[in-house]
Amino acid sequence: MTIEHLHHLFLEFPLVCTDTRKISPNCIFFALKGDNFNGNTYAAQALEKGASYAIVDEEEFAGHDKAILVNNVLNTLQELSQFHRNYCKAKVIGLTGSNGKTTTKELITAVLSRKYKTIATKGNLNNHIGVPLTLLSITPDTEMAIVEMGANHLKEIEFLCKLAMPDFGYITNFGKAHLEGFGSEEGVIKGKSELYDYLTSNDKSIFFNADDPIQKEKLSKVIKKFGYSQNKSEFFGIKLIGADPFVKIAVDDIQITTQLVGSYNFTNCCAAILIGKYFNVELDEIKRGIENYIPQNNRSQIIKKNGHHIILDAYNANPTSMKAALENFQQLKADNKIAFLGDMFELGKTAEKEHQEISNIATNMKFDQVFLIGENFFKTKSDLRKFKSFDHLRETLNNKTLKNATILIKGSRGMALERILDLI
Fold first, then answer.
1. CA-CA distance, 39 to 31, in Å (whole number)?
2. Which residues contact 320 (CB under 8 A, 6 or more apart)?
3. Alpha helices (H) in 296-374, listed in sequence order
4. What's the mean pLDDT when you consider all of the chain?
5. Residue 359 and residue 346 in contact, taking contact as beta carbons nearer than 8 Å
6. Architecture of 88-291 per CATH?
7. Residue 192 belongs to what H/E stretch?
8. Biggest CA-to-CA distance, the chain
């Protein structure tokens, strides 16, 4: 079956599923494979649960009249998504960066949705499977599609751009993330800049932070670019009023008071404002979109519990985002500040150095208490309280009362530090 023929089926049954636990009636099931599973073995079950067709790549599972045999299910999913993206008329905005991708994506969506029929990446489904699923969620009436692109190796953004074919793009920043895969900070810059490379080589437009020296240098010769700045009059001006704790922004003569904690979220808001203005969303509507956005999923959430004010930022962490979170926490006007910091993953050979540096920063900030959790932080040299695992922390906190504290919880996803909420 050709991709064109498969696309005709998809238009008739425009819902894709890759997990038999989430089968919806009349969906098309793609039997993907992983390190510990083979989706082909679930194809019959998917059809029994109501899938219209099952796409498989092993002949022994293709006996059902609704099973479609292809050479490679993943490649077919990707090719179908590319075909569908080309078929639809929606404008596609590609988004990548080391930190803040998902929050920025949600803010842009909140703004553009005030005027346009908009879809966006769900959660952080931003890889070689998630991007195709996002593209396949574009409907005939979709006007804007915001596609988040994640990567931890070179050439991954380049590949995702070939699928999504973005008309516009934005890079949040270049930070110390996924150093194990990229090899160095230079590797991060090169890898994330693959979005710029695609856009410029295809005469597409770029949104950017004109106050970021790396972005400014890389785009110095690019014509089709639209930037924001706090300092440069030749770009769209947006000012940070403050962040204690919520980010407040001035645009023209309008003040926007967000529900986002941390000055590091300022540029995320700026991107949404700039893109909204570019697409002629009225500033009052931009303000409503941003002010109504409430962070979820452990991203810069403010939680009040048992007399504590808690900043829960435990969705993920790397040295750049960890430093930014600590700097913001230091600036807050509050008593009894306590920081829980969890290991940062995917740092490769730089892990020891980066964890020691964060430990030093936290020590110098002289918070009332700092708890370091995880094997990497446990190895650091400092006078801070260190715990090799979450279980060791639990044993300590169960016997310790924290009273009326302002608390920061920050760590990589694998640390699952949101569990601390059950202990305080």
1. 4
2. 98, 99, 173, 175, 176, 177
3. 319-331, 351-364
4. 93
5. no
6. 3-Layer(aba) Sandwich (3.40)
7. helix 185-192
8. 68
Q: What superfamily in CATH does domain 3-72 come from? A: MurE/MurF, N-terminal domain (3.40.1390.10)
Contact 98, 173 (CB under 8 A): yes
- List pLDDT tens digits, range 82-139: 999 999 999 999 999 988 899 999 999 999 999 999 999 998 899 999 999 999 999 9
Contacts of 5 (CB under 8 A, 6+ apart): none
Q: Which residue has the tokens 């931009």?
A: 286
**CATH code for residues 301-423:** 3.90.190.20
Q: What is the pLDDT of residues 303-337, one digit of tens each?
A: 999 899 999 999 889 999 999 999 999 988 898 99
Is 333:400 a contact under the CB 8 Å cutoff?
Answer: no
Matching residue, tokens 């932080």 = 377
The pLDDT value recorded for residue 400 is: 67
pLDDT per residue as tens digits for the range 362-371: 999 999 999 9
Give the CA radius of gyration of the chain: 23
Structure tokens at 37: 């599973």
Q: Where are the domains of the chain?
A: 3-72, 88-291, 301-423
User: Lowest-confidence range among 207-216, 244-253, 280-289, 393-402?
Assistant: 393-402
Spatial distance between the Cα atoms of 359 and 362, rounded to a whole number of angstroms? 5
Annotated binding site for ATP: 97-103
Task: Report the C-alpha gap between 360 and 386 in whole angstroms.
Answer: 13
Residues contributing to the annotated binding site: 97-103
Handedness of CA 179, 184, 187, 192 (dihedral sign): positive
Kindly state the DSSP code that residue 301 receives in the 8-state scheme. Answer: E
Joined tokens for residue 169: 């793009």
| pLDDT attached to residue 399 | 64
User: Which amino acid appears at position 134 of this protein?
Assistant: T
Residue 147: closest CA among 295, 190, 160: 160
In single-letter form, the type of residue at position 330 comes to Q
pLDDT of residue 233: 84
